Amino acid sequence: MSQPLTIAFTKGRLEKPTVELFEKVGYDMTFLSEKNRQLILNSPDGSLRILLVKAADVTTYVRKGVADLGVVGSDVLSENPYGYYDMLDLNIGVCKFSVASTKEFDPINHQRKRIASKYPTVASDYFKEKNEDVEIIQIQGSVELAPILDLADAIVDIVETGTTLKENGLFILDDICRVSAHLIVNKSALKHHSAVMTLINDLEIVIEKGVEI
Ligand SMILES: Nc1ncnc2c1ncn2[C@@H]1O[C@H](COP(=O)(O)OP(=O)(O)OP(=O)(O)O)[C@@H](O)[C@H]1O
Ligand SMILES: O=P(O)(O)OC[C@H]1O[C@H](OP(=O)(O)OP(=O)(O)O)[C@H](O)[C@@H]1O
């Protein structure tokens, strides 16, 4: 029997749509739905070994070769762009990066802006592109608090339904780009593990078919 494919799945929001996508490809993923607090799960047929890791750690496991592949948001990849191949937009976990603030904020008549974000690279690249010198304040979550409490003038954050912005009295000033989950691959695994390419092809077919998930 050949080596199992080791795949790092992002724990949390992306877990369910990822499992559903792999089911569409034809894998029986019931071994994942029966888990308790286990973080390494082996499929009964020995073909898959799933690691459940935090979003920001997926690229590390793939880059270091502990995992052959990873499923991770393009938001995370924007902050950690090196050491793996970004193979496929999986079209799940779709949301966007936006700039937002309170209605009092005037982006035109403003001195050097303070921008709060969990994504300093994305925020700084956006303002560099606009030739604007801003101060980036990195925070880890509840980013919407920052302009309300005057920690920052505006935020760069993920928007999905827009509910969090709305419920905190914030408005979108600009949309930056689409965010979605991608399949990333370890460079050596792509060359040496034939099952990697088979999985990529199978996922591509399911995604191109536009199978609703
Ligand atoms: N509304 C959303 N908010 C945040 N991430 C989203 C959203 N919708 C889809 N995603 C995707 O889901 C991924 C995982 O998000 P999740 O909130 O589960 O983990 P996290 O960003 O590590 O947060 P936490 O630290 O709260 O666990 C993100 O990297 C992003 O690509
Ligand atoms: O547009 P919406 O559907 O409201 O989703 C967007 C919100 O969800 C995420 O936060 P999360 O729940 O991950 O908490 P966090 O602020 O601690 O990161 C994101 O940072 C936004 O706050």
UniProtKB/TrEMBL annotation:
Which InterPro entries does this entry report, sorted A to Z? ATP_PRibTrfase_cat, ATP_PRibTrfase_CS, ATP_PRibTrfase_HisG, ATP_PRibTrfase_HisG_short
Q: Which Pfam families match?
A: HisG
- Annotated localization: Cytoplasm
Instruction: Give one GO molecular function term.
Output: ATP binding
Q: Does the keyword Flavoprotein apply?
A: no
HAMAP family noted in UniProt: HisG_Short (MF_01018)
Q: What is this protein called?
A: ATP phosphoribosyltransferase
